[in-house]
Design a protein that fits this description.
With 189 residues, the chain is of the alpha/beta class. It has six helices and six strands. A six-stranded parallel β-sheet has the order 1-2-3-4-5-6. Helix 5 links the parallel strand 4 and strand 5. Helix 3 packs across helix 4, helix 4 packs parallel to helix 5 and helix 5 runs parallel beside helix 6.
Length: 189
């Protein structure tokens, strides 16, 4: 569930206590609020934002070793920034990364782009700085209130499924991967 709108740790904790896997936030700062409230599985459902954001993410990973946190990347440049942030921080564990696919606001928009992002994450993994952890998608950017919304949304979700298959192939069969999706209109999809 999203915690980023209410930002009430007690509400997020109540949802986790009732069976939610974890909680989703919008930024590293919001992740820190939830970590201080003893929430231990977090998804940052946004890009962390270039070199400064990557450094902030690396600091979070270093300060909260017992928190399982995931962040989105949708470009090779974002992967490189995270890897550089991890290297600068001299992390003793990798940053867990979800390859984001989407339309409009963010996300790799083609299978080729998703494959390139996954390949860059794997290269960072080989250097011990990143960990390919799965795929994220934001469907709302594919919808705009038009009659053909479902076709566009389904296309983005199909791309997410293709990206997850690519991630599975890259990570191997024995690794648990996260698949997460969100949006504003078509939760049932």
């Amino acid at each position: 569930p999203h915690a980023k709108t209410p930002m009430i740790p007690q509400f997020a904790s109540a949802l986790v206590d009732r069976g939610a896997w974890g909680t989703t936030v919008a930024s590293v700062r919001q992740a820190a609020v939830m970590a201080r409230a003893r929430l231990r599985q977090l998804i940052i459902a946004n890009e962390v934002g270039g070199a400064l954001g990557a450094r902030e993410m690396a600091r979070f990973v270093a300060l909260w070793p017992d928190v399982e946190v995931y962040c989105f990347v949708d470009s090779i440049e974002a992967v490189v920034a995270l890897e550089n942030g991890a290297a600068e921080a001299r992390l003793n564990r990798p940053i867990s990364v979800l390859a984001e696919v989407g339309a409009g606001r963010a996300g790799a928009r083609t299978q080729e782009n998703a494959s390139a992002v996954i390949g860059a994450i794997r290269a960072g993994e080989e250097r011990g700085r990143l960990r390919l952890a799965g795929v994220g998608v934001y469907e709302a950017s594919a919808s705009g209130g038009a009659e053909d919304d479902l076709g566009r949304v389904d296309a983005v979700l199909s791309l997410a499924a293709e990206a997850l298959a690519l991630a599975r192939k890259a990570a191997g069969d024995d690794r648990r991967l996260v698949a997460t999706g969100g949006g504003s209109f078509y939760f049932d999809r």
